[in-house]
C-alpha cells in the first residue's frame, strides 16, 4: 500500500494553535484512493524539524510528502513552487534560535523546485471552489527550511518520493486576534488537503497552466 506523509507544525510566534496541525491531524489514518495517510507534527525549530522529518521519511518510505505550515496574512491555499538555501529568521524559533543569512544545507544548491504537481493542485482546488494560488516564496523561516531540507534529502538519498510545501491561512479564531487578517476554516483546509493528495497521486507530471505573477 502506498503511504502519503503529511506534516504540520506546532504553534509558534505567540499563537496558541497552528492551523496546519489542526487540519493535518484529521487526516491521520485516512485512506485516499488506496493510499494510507500518516500525519506527523514537526517542531517549529531550525534543524530539529528536519531531524524529525527525515526520521519519518526513513521509517514510512512515503510515495508523497506534503509539508504544511501557517502563513498568517495569506488569504488562500498557497502551493509553494520553490525553496531557497537561506535561513533568515525575523523572529526566534521555538527553541530560541534565530539564524540570519545562514544556509539550510552547507554547500547545497541555491534553490529547489517542488516535485509535486503544483499547477494541477492549484487548479484542482479552484475547480472545487477552494481559493488557491501558486506561491513563489516560502519565506525564510522554518517553513522554507523544511521545504528545502525535504527536497535536498530526497535528492541526496535518491529517494523517488515527490514532495513540496503548502501554506495555509489563519483559522478564524486566530484571525479574530489579528483584525483585518484573512482566515480559512479547518474543514476547508482538510478538504483541500484531501483533494491535493488525490490529485498528486493521479498526476505524476504537472500540467502546463498559467499561474505566474507579474511582481
UniProtKB/TrEMBL annotation:
InterPro entries: Peptidase_C15 (IPR000816), Peptidase_C15-like (IPR016125), Peptidase_C15-like_sf (IPR036440), PGP-I_bact-type (IPR029762), PGPEP1_Cys_AS (IPR033694), PGPEP1_Glu_AS (IPR033693)
Keywords tagged on the record: Cytoplasm, Hydrolase, Protease, Thiol protease
Main location: cytoplasm
SUPFAM superfamilies documented for this protein: Pyrrolidone carboxyl peptidase (pyroglutamate aminopeptidase)
EC number of this enzyme: 3.4.19.3
GO CC list: cytosol
Job of this protein: Removes 5-oxoproline from various penultimate amino acid residues except L-proline.
Annotated protein name in UniProt: Pyrrolidone-carboxylate peptidase
Amino acid at each position: 500500500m502506498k503511504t502519503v506523509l503529511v506534516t504540520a507544525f506546532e504553534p509558534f510566534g505567540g499563537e496558541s494553535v497552528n492551523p496546519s496541525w489542526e487540519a493535518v491531524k484529521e487526516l491521520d489514518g485516512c485512506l485516499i484512493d488506496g493510499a494510507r495517510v500518516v500525519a506527523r507534527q514537526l517542531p517549529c525549530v531550525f534543524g530539529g524539524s528536519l531531524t524529525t522529518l527525515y526520521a519519518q521519511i526513513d521509517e514510512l518510505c512515503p510515495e508523497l510528502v506534503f509539508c504544511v505550515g501557517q502563513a498568517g496574512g495569506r488569504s488562500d491555499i498557497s502551493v509553494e513552487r520553490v525553496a531557497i538555501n537561506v535561513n533568515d529568521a525575523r523572529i526566534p524559533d521555538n527553541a530560541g534560535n534565530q539564524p540570519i543569512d545562514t544556509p539550510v544545507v552547507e554547500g547545497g544548491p541555491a534553490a529547489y523546485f517542488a516535485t509535486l504537481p503544483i499547477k494541477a493542485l492549484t487548479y484542482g482546488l479552484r475547480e472545487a471552489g477552494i481559493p488557491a494560488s501558486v506561491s513563489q516564496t516560502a519565506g525564510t523561516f522554518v517553513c522554507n527550511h523544511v521545504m528545502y531540507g525535504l527536497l535536498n534529502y530526497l535528492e541526496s538519498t535518491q529517494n523517488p518520493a515527490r514532495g513540496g510545501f503548502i501554506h495555509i491561512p489563519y483559522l478564524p479564531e486566530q484571525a479574530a486576534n489579528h483584525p483585518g487578517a484573512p482566515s480559512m476554516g479547518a474543514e476547508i483546509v482538510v478538504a483541500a488537503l484531501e483533494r491535493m493528495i488525490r490529485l498528486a497521486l493521479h498526476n505524476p507530471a504537472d500540467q502546463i497552466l498559467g499561474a505566474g505573477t507579474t511582481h
